[in-house]
Amino acid sequence: AQNSLGDIIVGGEEGKLFWKPNGTEWQDMSLSHDVQIAQLKFYKNDHVDMVTKSDSLLTINRAKVSPILDWQELNRFTTRDGWKVKEVTETPVVANKSKSKKDKKQKPKSLKEIASIELTELNKQQYINVRTISRNQNRAFEKGDLEKFAYYPDSWKVFEPEVMPDVTTMIQAGSTKLGITEAGFWSWTGRPTFSKYNSATNSWQEISTSMRMCPDGTATLNKKCPAQKEGDDRPKSSEEDFSLISVPLFFNETDALAIVNFSDFDFWSGERSNDIKILKTTDGGKNWLDTGNTTPTKFCTSLITEISDRLLVSCSGATGDFYESFDEGKTWQNVRQQLNF
Prior knowledge:
Strand 9 and strand 10 form a beta hairpin. It contains no helices and 27 strands. With 341 residues, it is mainly β. The protein has strands at 8-11, 17-20, 27-28, 36-43, 47-54, 57-64, 72-78, 82-83, 112-122, 125-134, 145-151, 158-159, 169-173, 176-181, 193-198, 203-206, 210-213, 238-241, 243-244, 249-250, 256-265, 272-281, 289-293, 302-303, 311-314, 322-325, 333-336. The protein has a domain at 166-341.
């Protein structure tokens, strides 16, 4: 995280935490190894908020911006007891645990682990999403349970708003905000749904994951394609489905680029082919066209959506390279190696 004064803080796994006040060198301010730093953000430029998790415990800490950060706990959440500091309403943040005479002998609630934490914002309201998972669940196959809460950014007191966003999670995608809805049990594809938020109507517009194609392989916005030769009937276009490899990058409310994969399975050979393309939309994701460009390599497909004046992708693998493009992916330049960061 970085504030407008140039102070930078970076954290992550095993309590790793590095602090760089503007004009000074990096300082190692790491925590204990059993703590994961899940989120870092500045509050009004002069304070840093840190969200950490360790097993079944989530803590909210704040420190005043200074050469040495002195953390003070503002709130905490456990998977058994919920939030320590919460606003009491008619609909409590944590379900009522009162027991009737019949269920006094019921078994205590099994403890869950905190799998992930996410901070989001919509219409100036702050939200924190906490995903928990049972100890006996396989993280590779189980999503766990998602709980959503709203909070006051000045105090981190948690409360339940009148209306919760009807998407699973929200992310910044360049100049706009996208909502992601996880696939339900009866989903044919098992893929999440992406939607773009329309602030004028206070609603979500689903982003299409198909593109119209002509028999000759060219993309079109029309239901019919150009005739192959004069006098011939115009052939119909067909919708080809694709999967979004990473979050689309919006440059404004209508124009965006997306890195996608077209997958084709050959029944007779049992082989699956993948074709990575960079697509473009000019109507907010309702329709897509092929730019004719692709990524620098098949391993470099993760768009960094916090950057909106260019395409910046990160690569998987040991080196973790980054590439940038200013011409919609026609040409790429290697800008940084992770080992040199």
